[in-house]
Structures are given as structure tokens and as C-alpha cells.
């Protein structure tokens, strides 16, 4: 028996701040190889994300989209096939209603089955649902990926180590949808970013920087936390095959938005050299960030960092910000709101209206009508913004 004090009983036994990215839920039966535990004991997985480079892949993706659009149009127009579907749905509802009646007793009360029925009984009644879950493979079973690797050539696969569920402070270790959106735009506008020097803020797993590294000359992928930066560096190493094709380079560095200066202490992992800082200030023309707007204080810190860095650049630059509007029900409003998004928009407006003699910031949204090169759900809550930071003097 374990003695538990009254003080320990009052402590919460679980935390509710664990968050999970939707990226892996979109392909629920995808196989994921668990390669290790990170420094804080979180499982680290290795996933393969296919790039739809060739025309056949893009045509397949387009075909799926067109099929969905055509189906929506048919329902709106009410063709014969849709009438048949509606009749089938009506019959199904009637059958469900009859099934519900069978569960009512003589007084009309619902009879609740207190004990779960066996799987065989459910299967006999046709009530057994398919189980959907990721297949997690332990290290040492890499051969399970053999078929998948054979299907994908070196030039069309991004390999990413990541976690699947983390506390809020470790969300950078997951792969997020807005990062895929920004990666799509980079691949769609390859010529725009060719041979550029790029800075990514809040790079996380590094997937967007890796995609940018296929076209840009050099990318500084930045974030905070030694464990996260080590994961990011590992991902860069896993995708050397992609970077070689574009002859690009990705450097993983620490950049803390809550600090005013770059870390230059050579004893600190992922610190900056004076030569690297000068390289950034002299040649950077693109800054990007994806899915980093979920906390008001961090949003403020990011925009302060953008303001400080753009003032120190020798050239004008373009900033790309990708994000997902997340709806939350709050007790304060007693309604569904997007508080983090609202704060982002207000801060974005403040930056554009800033009276500054050295810099002018022009903000514009980017239409999401460009090709999709990665497989994910491009939901309507995704947004991509472009900020032109123009040097006036």
C-alpha cells in the first residue's frame, strides 16, 4: 500500500494542456516509426511526407478536388443520383428510428445496456465499427517501411522526426498544417525564392525551412530549446538528399523572441557567430513563420523581433506569415471566439500603420488558390499573409 498525503490528493493528477496536431489525424492509418524518447521522455516518431512533384501526382490531387466539387454541385442542383441518395438516407434514418424504438421499454424509457456486448454480438448485428488508429512501429522494425520507401524516390519524400502530442510549451515538436501551407507556397513560387537568404522564426521541426532549402541559397532555421533544435538539426540531416538537389543550406540556430540580442556565446549550442549575424543582416531578403500565433505574449514578442531585425537589414525584405484560425469556446464570452487570431490581426494592423521614418510595412493577404504539393487538409481557417518591409532611407 502506498501512503498518500492530503496535500498530494489535492494536486491535479493530469493536465489538460496537451495538444495534438491534426496533420496525422488526416491519414489515420499511416504507419509511424517510433525511433526514440527525447530528453523529456516524449516519444519521437519518424514520418514520411510525399511531395507531389510530377504532373501525375498533381493531376490525382486535382481529380480528388474536382470530384468533391462536382458532388457538392450535384447536391445543390438536385440531379437524379442525388435524389436517390437522399431517398437512401431517408430510409436509413427510418431504420435507425425503428432500431431506437426497439430499445424502448413499455413506458417509452430508453433501456441502457450497462455491460458492453461482445464483439461477436456487435459484428452479428452489423454494429461493429472499423477501428482507426495510427500504426506505431518500434525502432528495429524499419523493414516495415520498405514498401513505402520503394514507392517513393529520394526526390519526393520529406522525412521528419516529430512528436504527436505535447504540452503547449512543446508544440514546436509537432508538425502543423500552416507549415504545410507555407511549404506549398514556396514550391509554387520557386523562382521567387531561388538563391535567397531566408530567416525562419519558430521553425519547430524544420519542415518549412527544409522545403525552402530546396530553392534558396541559405536558410537560418531558428527556435528555442536545445531538445527542439537538436530534433530540427536531425531533420535537416535526414533530408540532405533534397537540399543537394537545390544546392541549398539550412543552418539551425537559437533565436529567442523574448531577448533583444542574438546568442553569441560559443559555449551555448546553436549560438550565432559574428560572421553569421553579419551574413543575415547583409543578405537576408525573406523572413517567414508558420503557425506561431497561439499566445498573445509570444505574438507581441514575434512582432517586436520582426521590427528589430528588419531595421538591421541592409536590404528591403518580404515577410510571409502562415497561420490557422482556431476556434475556442470561452466562459468569458460564453461563445466561440478566435482570441489569438484577433490579437494577431490587431498587431498586424498596428505594424502596417506604424509611423516610421526608416521602414514602411505593407500588408496583404495571399489567395490560397495555388497548387497543393503536400497531402493535408487545406481547411478554410488557414491563412497566408505577406508583409513587404521596405527600407526608406
From TrEMBL:
Family matches, as SUPFAM superfamilies? S-adenosyl-L-methionine-dependent methyltransferases (SSF53335)
Q: Where in the cell is it found?
A: Nucleus
Q: Which residues form a coiled coil?
A: none
Q: Which InterPro entries match?
A: Methyltransf_16 (IPR019410), METTL22 (IPR038899), SAM-dependent_MTases_sf (IPR029063)
Q: Name one GO biological process term.
A: methylation
Q: Which GO terms describe its molecular function?
A: protein methyltransferase activity
For this protein, the record's Pfam families field holds: Methyltransf_16 (PF10294)
The protein's superkingdom reads Eukaryota
Q: Which UniProt keywords apply?
A: Methyltransferase, Nucleus, Phosphoprotein, S-adenosyl-L-methionine, Transferase
Subcellular location, principal: nucleus
Q: Which GO terms describe its cellular component?
A: nucleus
Q: How is the quaternary structure described?
A: Interacts with members of the heat shock protein 90 and 70 families; these proteins probably are methylation substrates.
Query: Which protein family is it in?
Result: Belongs to the methyltransferase superfamily. METTL22 family.
Instruction: Spell out the PANTHER family in the cross-references.
Output: METHYLTRANSFERASE-LIKE PROTEIN 22 (PTHR23108:SF0), METHYLTRANSFERASE-RELATED (PTHR23108)
Q: What function is annotated for this protein?
A: Protein N-lysine methyltransferase.
- The protein here is known as Methyltransferase-like protein 22
**Which organism is this protein's natural source?**
Athene cunicularia
